[in-house]
Every structure is written in structure tokens, then in C-alpha cells.
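Quick one, probably user error.
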């Protein structure tokens, strides 16, 4: 465990700077990407200064916000935690945030120094109205975590014209593994989408959900070479979050996390035109879980401020309050100050393992 004086904002800021410098080096042959990344680097530094000013006043502002802009999805992926916790369905959403309400959230985030807003769902490409609003905030990088099946000419143009909107396609591995979890034919749609974006010179990435069983295959040279050939520029390794006690055995352990960390540096060295990131990353080296505003927080499609997408608990709604007030909600403060986020856990999500304690905090 890290020392008590560990500064989470410095840790995140240094990580962001490393990624941006690596990206500039990787994209040196692409003028459009170079211009965008120079601007993004400048804006990231400005955002860091804003967060530091808040920190001097005793208010921690995370660099990252995860925004689930819809609860609808066109796929039924096995083991989906969003469907398991009822935050995702086939039904038409009721009382979800409007595009204008998301725009207000983006404005607040910019003013607070939030540098990255992950657009998630459900399937975020079902909310083109919100994604169009995001194009008005070039200071913020918006990775869109999508299943890649709804890409069309309109989105291709939008991504080409607005380089701060970066599609991140979810893929599980080869065709057999991907289709077994996401549905027959999904892998081919993903590959077709990747080739389209490569042809149109659009930056895109891939999201790889890793378990204790599949990490070795995802790290294989064969698979990474395939992503590289498709034109993928960014690879996110996302820790699998159990949907219930029965799937807990699939959650990564320290052994898998160490394997990933050992491989990330060599991947970055070998594939210098690609970026490799892990989420949530090494919690031990970042002083514990980064949820509940320590490093990021989550706004669900109805406005509820939650510690993390995998911990769907909320005691405050941004329809009725500001992002700053949401960060200082009783639940968030209790999690940050009560020691749960820094607790030991066997694998996967610390909040999942301590979900009864989180639920008790809402009852107090």
C-alpha cells in the first residue's frame, strides 16, 4: 500500500502526459493527428492546472469521468454486468438525461479540469444527439466504448471532423471467442468497421476485457499483430468485473495484473505506433481503487452519480445538483474516507467484493 501522502492527481497527470507524448511520437507521419495531439497536450496541461487550483482549496477533482449516455443496447453479451445490475435493457429509456443535460455536464466538467470523458452505455452510438454535443468540447477527449455494429457514413464523417471523439471497439479476441460472447457475426462487423476507419484515416482503438483465463491469448503477438494490421491505434485492457458470485472466479488476480504490467512496457516498445493502457490499472501503485472521485466517477443515463459503472449505487442526481456537489455526496465521501477503496481484495472489483458495506452506507 502506498504512503498516506500519495497524490492521486499527480499520478494521473503524469500518466496522461506519458500517453500524450507517446501518441505524438507514434503519429508523427500523420499531420491531422499531430495537430490534434498537440492541441490535446496543451489542453491537458491547462486542465491539470485547474485541478491543482481546486486541490489547493481542499477539493479533489478527478481527471476522468465515465458517462453512460444510454441504457439501451442492441446486443446481448454474455456476462454483461450492465444487464446484470439492470442498468442496461432493450426497453426505451424513461427519464434519461437529455442531450442538453449532458451538454451542461460537459460544460461543468471542462470548467473543473476534467480531461477525459468516457462515453459508454448501453450502446453509446444509439445517442448521436449526445455525441454531436461532445464535438463542441475539443478540450476534452471523448473515448466512445462501442460494440462497433452501428458505424455508418455519418459517424465516419463525425469522427474524421472531430478528432477528440475516439471510437473504442469492444472485441474479445478471435472470431470464435468474440462471437461466442457477443453474438454470431459480430466479429466480422467489428473487422469491417476497423477496416473502414483505417481506410478513412480515423484514430480508433480496441477494448479487451481480460479475465484470469484469457489474458495470455490477448497478449499474444498473433492477436496484437492482427489489431495492428487492422489499423488500431489504442488498446485498452479492461479488467473483467464479476456479475455475481458464480463468475467471481473469472476475475483477474494479482498474478494476471502483474503479467499485464510486465507486458505493457514491451508492447509499447515493439509497437511504437500504438498506445497500450490498462483500466483500472495497478490499484496498489495508485493507492487503492480510483472510484468515487479519487480518479474517476460515473454518471448513469438517468443522472445518478455512482462510484463506478460496476458499483451502481447513488445518493445524488446531477439533474438536481452540480458535479462538484455530486463528488462531495455522502456516499462518495464515505467511500473515500472509510477505507473501503483501499481495502484488499482477491480479484476484480473491490466494490463488488464489499457491495454489502456499500449498501449499508446508503442506509445510514
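Nope, works fine. Designed sequence:
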Amino acid at each position: 500500500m502506498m504512503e498516506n501522502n500519495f497524490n492521486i492527481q499527480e499520478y494521473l497527470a503524469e500518466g496522461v502526459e506519458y500517453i500524450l507524448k507517446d501518441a505524438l511520437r507514434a503519429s508523427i507521419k500523420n499531420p491531422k493527428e499531430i495537430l490534434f495531439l498537440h492541441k490535446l497536450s496543451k489542453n491537458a496541461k491547462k486542465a491539470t492546472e485547474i485541478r491543482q487550483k481546486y486541490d489547493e482549496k481542499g477539493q479533489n477533482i478527478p481527471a476522468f469521468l465515465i458517462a453512460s449516455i444510454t441504457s439501451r443496447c442492441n446486443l446481448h453479451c454474455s456476462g454483461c454486468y450492465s444487464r446484470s445490475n439492470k442498468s442496461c435493457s432493450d426497453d426505451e429509456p424513461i427519464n434519461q438525461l437529455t442531450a442538453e443535460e449532458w451538454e451542461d455536464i460537459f460544460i461543468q466538467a471542462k470548467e473543473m479540469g476534467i480531461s477525459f470523458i468516457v462515453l459508454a452505455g448501453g450502446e453509446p452510438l444509439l445517442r448521436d444527439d449526445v455525441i454531436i454535443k461532445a464535438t463542441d468540447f475539443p478540450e476534452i477527449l471523448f473515448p466512445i466504448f462501442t460494440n462497433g455494429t452501428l458505424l455508418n457514413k455519418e459517424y465516419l464523417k463525425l469522427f474524421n471532423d472531430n478528432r477528440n471523439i475516439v471510437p473504442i471497439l469492444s472485441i474479445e479476441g478471435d472470431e470464435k471467442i468474440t462471437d461466442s460472447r457477443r453474438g454470431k457475426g459480430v466479429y466480422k462487423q467489428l473487422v469491417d468497421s476497423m477496416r473502414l476507419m483505417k481506410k478513412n484515416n480515423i484514430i480508433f482503438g480496441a477494448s479487451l476485457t481480460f479475465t484470469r483465463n484469457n489474458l495470455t491469448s490477448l497478449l499474444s503477438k498473433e492477436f496484437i499483430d492482427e489489431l495492428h494490421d487492422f489499423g488500431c491505434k489504442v488498446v485498452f485492457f479492461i479488467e473483467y468485473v464479476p456479475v455475481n458470485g458464480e463468475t467471481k472466479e473469472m476475475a483477474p488476480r494479482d498474478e494476471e495484473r502483474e503479467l499485464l504490467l510486465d507486458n505493457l512496457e514491451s508492447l509499447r516498445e515493439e509497437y511504437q505506433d500504438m498506445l497500450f493502457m490498462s483500466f483500472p490499472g495497478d490499484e496498489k501503485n495508485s493507492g487503492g481503487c480510483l472510484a468515487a472521485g479519487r480518479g474517476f466517477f460515473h454518471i448513469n443515463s438517468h443522472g445518478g452519480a455512482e462510484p463506478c459503472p460496476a458499483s451502481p449505487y447513488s445518493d445524488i442526481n446531477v439533474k438536481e445538483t452540480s458535479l462538484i456537489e455530486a463528488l462531495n455526496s455522502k456516499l462518495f465521501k464515505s467511500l473515500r474516507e472509510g477505507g473501503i477503496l483501499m481495502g484488499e481484495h482477491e480479484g476484480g472489483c473491490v466494490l463488488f467484493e464489499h457491495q454489502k458495506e456499500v449498501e449499508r452506507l446508503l442506509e445510514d
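The CA atoms of residues 274 and 302 lie 35 Å apart.
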